[in-house]
Amino acid sequence: MDNTIYVYSEKYDIRGFIQDHGLNFGLCFDYEDKLIQMGLAKTAVDYEKYGKDLIESYVENLAVPKVKRKLRLHYWWVCRRKDRHGSTYAYASGIVTGHERLCDSHEAETSEVIDVVYNEEDDEILLKTLNSTYHCPLAYCNFDKQDENPDLLPDYEHLKEKYKNSNPNHSIEHGNVLLVLADFCDHYFQSLYYVPKFIKSKNPTPYTAKVSGITFQDNYMIRTNDGTIDIRYLTHFQNIELYKCNTNARRLFIENIGDSVIYVKFPSGAIRLEPYDFKEYKEKNIEKEPPALPNGDLYPPDWFRLK
Fold first, then answer.
1. In which element (H, E) is residue 269 found?
2. Which of 83, 157, 211, 225 is such that its CA lies 20 to 30 A from the CA of 63?
3. Which of 138, 142, 82, 83 is nearest to 107 (CA)?
4. SS3 track for 105-127
5. Which helix (H) or strand (E) holds 36?
6. Cα separation of 18 and 21, whole Å?
7. How many degrees, rounded to 5, is the angle at CA 56 between CA 55 and CA 61?
8. Do residues 255 and 188 make contact, with C-beta atoms less than 8 angstroms apart?
9. What does pTM read for this prediction?
10. Contact 59/51 with Cβ under 8 angstroms?
């Protein structure tokens, strides 16, 4: 294909373009003042039509109303650096969601932080830059990294004592499997919970979750240490594609604790998970003909990682 193909949705009067970036193509367009960027696999025949279908599917199936979203950082910390003039300033790092220009679920760095406020009512830190206010849940603060600059958060030792390891635990009836997803987590994976049926302990079976380097696509693997559960998927824009889902006949439930829609694709169809949705993997919850969804990497090369 040509290096750039321009696409247009007459239905929503949205223009975009697809570019070749090596292993992946990228679709870019603006919607409600937000830059949308999707990785696409090199599998389509008519890219102009495919791009139009994805734009319309995004509007109809994936977009979250702007008024419902806050600008958030998860797995965050605040640190210092020097500018090119030698002056020191504070900035924050973390996984961003709800930004007008940056892609959800990507690591990002803020501009200079000019004010830090503890919002005890919502258990969060508000980080204010010149143009934005970031909502930073304290349960998702990276306190190990924040220890390097404790003076950048107010009453730091109190916050650390109160919120470190307070990340909420998600559980389910023993004998069942719970896969927890979120748009603020790397590869959308937040946790896996499984305890054998006749075990009294509430401690979940230990597992390993990691990126697998077997394929050229973003390939994520979750496996319990005893080998009972083995789940593997490809990560795409607001959807994951399971190519292995071995639960050894245990019932599988999936929970979305983020504020974006996530589709979970199986060979038999797809399950749509609204924000804070909870569904079992069974026939009545599966869309046999899911909408057009991006099928390229969630984390393509550097063109995708805006700063």
1. strand 269-273
2. 211
3. 142
4. CEEEECCCCCEEEEEHHHCEEEE
5. strand 34-40
6. 10
7. 105
8. no
9. 0.90
10. no
The rounded distance, in Å, linking the Cα atoms of 232 and 210 is 10
pLDDT in tens, 118-136: 999 999 999 999 999 999 9
Assign 3-state DSSP to the chain and report helix, strand, coil percentages, each to 5: 15, 40, 45
Phi, psi of 146, deg, nearest 5: -65, -25
Per-residue model confidence as pLDDT tens digits over 85-126: 999 999 999 999 988 877 788 889 999 999 999 999 999 999
Residue written as token pair 């319990």 = 224
Amino acid at position 204, single letter: P
- 7 contacts: CB under 8 Å, gap ≥ 6: 15, 16, 17, 18, 27, 29, 47, 48, 51, 52, 55
Exposure letters 231-256 (e unless 16+ CB within 10 A, then b) = bbbbbbbbbbbbeebebeeeebbbbb
